[in-house]
């Protein structure tokens, strides 16, 4: 122990974490309220502490030291000394080994039976004096070198982007064509079979559910379940090792990115910077809590021993503090520069921009991102709500940000599945949600349009279940959404009735086409293009099994072909251009966009507000990628109808009433036979 103290030199206060310079390792740790921070070294297995010494220097709120001769592979942890005053927010306990928040690689597996709680479980105001070093998670010094072989970011324009949300494991765990040893891994996603499916569909980006290293909550572990979705981070710089088939997660992840880029597919990460895995005041002390609780977390002013739970997970990181903000930015830069990812989707994003009282669109988080040259050009996507006061912020993020548009989701579901929705509401959503984004001088592309995401029913279940069936989560079927806007088409769950099956298939195609042809940036959830079901579980966050793994053996090939056809039509025509429409006439007397009733007449105010009729048409005389006018027809009722076409020689490019979406219909000056529960795209072949 003393020998280490004699070897440590002053070092420097940057960069944060452990960094190897070829001759030794520099350690820099943030704590504004500690009285001392100790560096603890471990044997090669990470089980026995072999040396310990205080970091010898302090620059402001950074403790630092340099260990000459140290190399990558060194395993270390931290101990922080300071006051134990929970009522004031201080929870220092040097008996608990702490993980470096900037750890690039994490060693060990968390054992909930270990003494990882800083407070005595029976007497919460007292320290727990048991040492947990043997079982604690630790960091390993790494040297991040990788041959990218000239990798180039695709940088797909938003107008061309189609996002595909997937889970690294669930996507390939049962995929034929992927070697058994690689299924469910980063390497599996990089396989030819996986990439071939993505290219067949025509998607331009994969949005990966969290791949930061995570912890399974104590309750789940006690039931033999896991946090499958991954929204419980312990390592903001470390890829989840459970997805590494080779045992080398960083290298395997980067190889995956390189192969996806070579196929023209961007990689977007779902990131969770709103909270950590330490949970509330009853949770374990793993890292941030023990290093400086009052700086890392948002604590109620009137009760500093508790935590602001605006995330629903027990705690919330406090990005008002510059060092917390620094960790988030360092992580984003790391994944952008070192791991070559192309963008980020921020879980519960309003948490990141909360000031003392509320969400701040001009807050430090947004300003820091906007000026960072390394992060310029990456795609930034917000989940624009949290559960705190004023937490719903759709449309209020800065220009340049994309936002998950749940108004689009709910409207599309309600219109097609029999909920309360007018034609006026649907038209707004199809036309980029102009009431939300145009009013704030933001482009239509910043609306991420979707009908289904990982959070909720799959598309197949959306048209097969009226009620959630989450019993396997062991929460009494109380978890998950109760307001799904779903419709079981007359039978709850599986059915062999051909009429029910035909209706469900038609509704799935209509919803997919609505997402893909609307103005904005479309997003699909993996498996929806092939009829994947979760048996009615609309919150399978803890189901790492056949519930969530895509069953490729039961894939609906016609639905896959349909989805690929619609994406190809979007790429070919871009029916609604990525600019705002005015409704004004051009020099030829044509309106750039007009909305029609089934008799071919322009919609009136009464028509817009009619809560019964579900038939309308969008007459698009200024599409995004063709000079020929297009006509988008919608019939969301159970009866076939005719739709009077404008003058011209019209041909059908898409009819969702057909299994593959293709149609040979042509006609001029007639009523188009618009079938029940269908969407049709027509092109005016006579226009010049």
TrEMBL record:
<keyword id="KW-0326">Glycosidase</keyword>
<keyword id="KW-0378">Hydrolase</keyword>
<feature type="domain" description="Glycosyl hydrolase family 13 catalytic">
    <location>
        <begin position="165"/>
        <end position="563"/>
    </location>
</feature>
<comment type="similarity">
    <text>Belongs to the glycosyl hydrolase 13 family.</text>
</comment>
<dbReference type="InterPro" id="IPR013783">
    <property type="entry name" value="Ig-like_fold"/>
</dbReference>
<dbReference type="InterPro" id="IPR017853">
    <property type="entry name" value="GH"/>
</dbReference>
<dbReference type="Pfam" id="PF00128">
    <property type="entry name" value="Alpha-amylase"/>
</dbReference>
<dbReference type="InterPro" id="IPR044505">
    <property type="entry name" value="GlgX_Isoamylase_N_E_set"/>
</dbReference>
<dbReference type="InterPro" id="IPR004193">
    <property type="entry name" value="Glyco_hydro_13_N"/>
</dbReference>
<protein>
    <submittedName>
        <fullName>Glycogen debranching enzyme GlgX</fullName>
    </submittedName>
</protein>
<dbReference type="InterPro" id="IPR013780">
    <property type="entry name" value="Glyco_hydro_b"/>
</dbReference>
<dbReference type="InterPro" id="IPR014756">
    <property type="entry name" value="Ig_E-set"/>
</dbReference>
<dbReference type="InterPro" id="IPR011837">
    <property type="entry name" value="Glycogen_debranch_GlgX"/>
</dbReference>
<dbReference type="InterPro" id="IPR006047">
    <property type="entry name" value="GH13_cat_dom"/>
</dbReference>
<dbReference type="Pfam" id="PF02922">
    <property type="entry name" value="CBM_48"/>
</dbReference>
């Amino acid at each position: 122990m003393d020998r280490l103290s004699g070897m440590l030199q002053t070092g420097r206060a940057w960069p944060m974490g452990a960094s190897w310079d070829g001759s030794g390792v520099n350690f820099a740790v943030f704590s504004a309220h500690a009285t001392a921070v100790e560096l603890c070294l471990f044997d090669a297995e990470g089980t026995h502490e072999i040396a310990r010494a205080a970091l010898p220097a302090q620059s402001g709120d950074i403790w630092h030291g340099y260990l000459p001769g140290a190399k990558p592979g060194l395993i270390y942890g931290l101990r922080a000394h300071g006051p134990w005053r929970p009522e004031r927010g201080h929870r220092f306990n040097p008996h608990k080994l702490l993980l470096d928040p900037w750890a690039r690689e994490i060693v060990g597996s968390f054992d909930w039976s270990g003494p990882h709680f800083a407070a005595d479980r029976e007497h919460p105001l007292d320290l727990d004096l048991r040492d947990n070093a043997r079982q604690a998670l630790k960091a390993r010094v790494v040297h991040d070198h990788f041959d990218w072989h000239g990798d180039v970011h695709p940088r797909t324009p938003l107008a061309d982007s189609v996002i595909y949300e997937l889970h690294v494991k669930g996507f390939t765990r049962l995929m034929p064509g992927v070697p058994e040893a690689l299924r469910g891994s980063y390497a599996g996603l990089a396989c030819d079979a996986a990439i071939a499916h993505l290219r067949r569909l025509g998607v331009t980006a994969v949005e990966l559910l969290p791949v930061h290293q995570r912890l399974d909550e104590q309750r789940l572990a006690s039931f033999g379940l896991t946090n499958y979705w991954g929204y419980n981070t312990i390592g903001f710089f470390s890829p989840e090792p459970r997805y590494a088939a080779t045992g080398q997660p960083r290298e395997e992840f980067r190889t995956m990115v390189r192969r996806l880029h070579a196929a023209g597919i961007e990689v977007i990460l779902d990131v969770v910077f709103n909270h950590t895995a330490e949970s509330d005041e009853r949770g374990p002390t793993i890292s941030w809590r023990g290093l400086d609780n009052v700086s890392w977390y948002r604590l109620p002013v009137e009760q500093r021993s508790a935590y602001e739970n605006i995330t629903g997970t027990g705690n919330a990181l406090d990005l008002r503090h510059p060092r917390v903000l620094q960790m988030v930015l360092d992580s984003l830069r790391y994944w952008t520069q070192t791991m070559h990812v192309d963008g980020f989707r921020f879980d519960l994003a309003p948490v990141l921009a909360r000031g003392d009282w509320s969400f701040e669109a001009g807050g430090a988080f947004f300003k820091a991102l906007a000026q960072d040259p390394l992060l310029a050009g990456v795609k930034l996507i917000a989940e624009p709500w949290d559960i705190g006061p004023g937490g719903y912020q759709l449309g209020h993020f800065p220009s340049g940000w994309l936002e998950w548009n749940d108004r689009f989701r709910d409207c599309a579901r309600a219109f097609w599945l029999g909920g309360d929705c007018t034609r006026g509401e649907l038209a707004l959503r199809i036309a980029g949600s102009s009431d939300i984004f145009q009013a704030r001088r933001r482009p239509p592309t910043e609306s991420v349009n979707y009908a289904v995401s990982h959070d909720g029913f799959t598309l197949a279940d959306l048209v097969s279940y009226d009620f959630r069936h989450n019993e396997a989560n062991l929460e009494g079927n109380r978890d998950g959404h109760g307001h799904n806007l779903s419709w079981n088409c007359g039978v709850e769950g599986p059915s062999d009735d051909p009429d029910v099956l035909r209706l469900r298939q038609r509704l799935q195609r209509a919803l997919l086409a609505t997402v893909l042809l609307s103005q904005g940036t479309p997003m699909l959830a993996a498996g929806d293009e092939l009829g994947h079901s979760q048996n009615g579980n609309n919150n399978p966050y803890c189901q790492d099994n056949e519930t969530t793994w895509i069953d490729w053996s039961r894939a609906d090939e016609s639905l896959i072909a349909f989805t690929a056809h619609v994406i190809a039509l979007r790429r070919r025509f871009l029916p609604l251009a990525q600019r705002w429409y005015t409704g004004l006439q051009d020099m030829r007397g044509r309106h750039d966009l007009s909305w029609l009733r089934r008799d071919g007449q322009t919609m009136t105010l009464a028509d817009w507000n009619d809560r019964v009729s579900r038939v309308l048409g969008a007459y698009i005389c200024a599409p995004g990628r063709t000079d020929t006018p297009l006509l988008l027809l919608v019939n969301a009722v159970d009866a076939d109808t005719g739709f009077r076409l404008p003058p011209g020689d019209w041909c059908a490019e898409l009819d969702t009433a057909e299994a593959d979406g293709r149609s040979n219909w042509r006609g001029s000056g007639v009523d188009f036979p618009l079938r029940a529960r269908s969407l049709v795209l027509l092109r005016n072949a006579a226009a010049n």
